[in-house]
Amino acid sequence: MWWKIRSTKFFILCPLDSTAIRRFNKFCLSTLVAVYFLILVGGVVRSTGSGMGCPDWPKCFGRWVPPTSVDQLPENYKEVYSAHRDKKNQKFAHYLSIIGLEETASKIKEDKSILKEADFNPAKTWVEYINRLIGVIIGGFIIVLFLRSLKFRKSLPSLFIYSTLTLITVIIQGWFGSIVVSTNLTTWTITIHMLVALLIVAFLIYLYHKSGKTAESDEIKIPTNLKILLLISLTVLLVQIVLGTEVREAIDVITASIDDRSLWIGNVGLEFLIHRSFSWVVLLVSLVLVVKLRKTSCDKALSRNLIILILSTLMTGAGMGYLGILQVLQPIHLLLATITFGIQLFIFFVVNGQSQVA
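Predicted structure:
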């Protein structure tokens, strides 16, 4: 893998089966790639406006195989699924009230606009349905990863613990995905959904890193301030991803009244200006990080690829700004940003275990 970095120390596995741990490591990587593919598909769902292509969950219009024509639906399908979502929202609002989020719960209960059903669109329905099918397959990957970790629960308990956490987080993500649908893509739920996806990525990257520390390798000499710089870079990038999600949320509101894509950016306002300006902060911090990395004994290709990813992310973002939120660039922009986050996090895990030099 082009972003793999040498492990930090000689890690003695005996009496642990080294073949089993190597297979676990490879399966971690396969699962991580699959999750990134799901993020890409999720970006396609967002860019095509297909998030409400299926008004219920886990089924789609009450079917395991969705309809292809509105004729297959009852005449009052909008009322039926609106009532179904309202019932689910009331239950969710009750849970929010229990944990003290009374204001948020009240908004969900009182805002009847979130119960508005869109007209049936077979293309959007199938885009969302395919997204769900891929999500089920990824869930299968996570379950297999957990089952494989059982053999390490005594010899390498961290693999078992983080595999368990990953499985639990995926289950929560699946449930919360149903909330995103029932609340009609309410803006804050989309942001949380994205952050939970990044948490799953973080768990998988840690598992990949931890299970990869199985062979002797040269120790990497790390400048004392590199760990701090990595934390700053990760934080800045995470903030930028959240800001980007808020821009997307603002655009979702605008699209309800403006069809011309070329006018969307001009009507977003402050959210876009902040996101665009903050990209320079991301670039500056990333450049400093790359310079520091190149002074260590890390693979030079790693730092080169990292800056290529950063520049590609900025270019696709600029492309959307100047080309009227070009639909094909949206999922690519999101994917590049999340891969960059993952690589930086992997470097942090490696650096965290290294000896420091002045």
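Summary: The beta strands are 222-223, 356-357.
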